[in-house]
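Fig. S4 source data, part A: sequence.
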Amino acid sequence: MKIIIKNSAILLSLTAMLLVGACKKDFNNPNAATADQVFSNTRGFTGTAVGLQRLYSLGRAGSLFNIINANGFVTNELFLVNAGNLPEAQLNLGGGSVDPTNTILANIWANASKVIFDADNVITGAQGLADKGYASGLIGYTTIYKALALGSLSMFWERVPAGVGINTSFTERKQGFERAVTAIDAALASITTNPITAGVLANLPAGIDIVNTLQALKARYALFAGNYPLALTAANAVDLTKRSAFTYDALNLNSLFEISTATNNVFQPIDSTMGLPVGLRPEASDARVNFYMVINPTTAPRWRLLGFAAAANTNFPIYLPDEMRLIKAEALVRQSAPNLTAAKTELDAVLTQLPAADPFGVGANQPTYAGPLTAAALLTEIYRNRCIELFMSGLKLEDMRRFERPLTERKRNFFPYPFRERDNNPNTPTDPSF
């Protein structure tokens, strides 16, 4: 029987918003259902899983908007439209102007803690469900959000919480990426043992291909952790013809459109350079520029968001197929025995991609790579294409560090820890100087 979850999902989402504002990571709300009540049956597990997508992908307080926002300003992807938006203004200035009071960073941090907490409860509880195919679907779906949450913490902070709870210790951020990969492996193993049933898919938001998304995130975070053989294997396992995205409609609006495109009050793309220095900027003929932005001929700023912020119901991809090709190219160059010829083949597939042939319509339509066939030259071209292909994806700051780009090309290297963490956890590390 199909489980009706819409009301419980909304309740859980509102509960999550209340919890985000709490000073301590004590995820109990006396006015809501208790954890024992929620995490005791299929309906509760499913409603919590749906709530994760709302917490991550919707609204100004949602993780997705804030990740794109924080990353975009410090890597020069974004133009600040209204300096009265103080959190954005801090990030736009960068350096010491970004302080622990910044609500954008606080939202990313608090949302990640809430997502990991709820995902762990669903993953643990679902293992006891009688319908193992339903359980594996819930485990796979919630693991996507757990991995994204761990990834967001690990991309933006030098050290990450070792767990969720009061006075938790901290670990090196690389371990955050590795924890994401470990969780994904466990989810994939569960799905292999008990294939996902149609029943659970009918009760989860449409648009997300669970297995392909798990493999794509495994490839992403294995790459970020420096495990190149694993990144290559996982990227090869992704079906590049499939789409996997957060979906939006008239009630649940695309937050980039709702907050920036529709109002022109927060940010717009910097311009067709995408914030890249001379020598790395897109060619004028690169079709990806006209995918991601459009010129407004009458009203400043001239360059406006398009792409995945084009309309209220525009889907936002969790990964792009060509991200997987670029992961393969990079892993092939960085592995212990580099295969530069194979790396060029993957890079050329990205450069020559026709928009009409890509599941999301993103394609460069450019000539093949004609530069030197050296590791250094290929890595520079891979970085350039990641910045263009994955524009406003939230991944550029991590890329800048990994490719050892000059500090002068970004406004922060890592972010300060939110006061709400420091005030309640004596284990909070010292803030980075830049």
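Fig. S4 source data, part B ends here. The longest strand covers residues 78-80.
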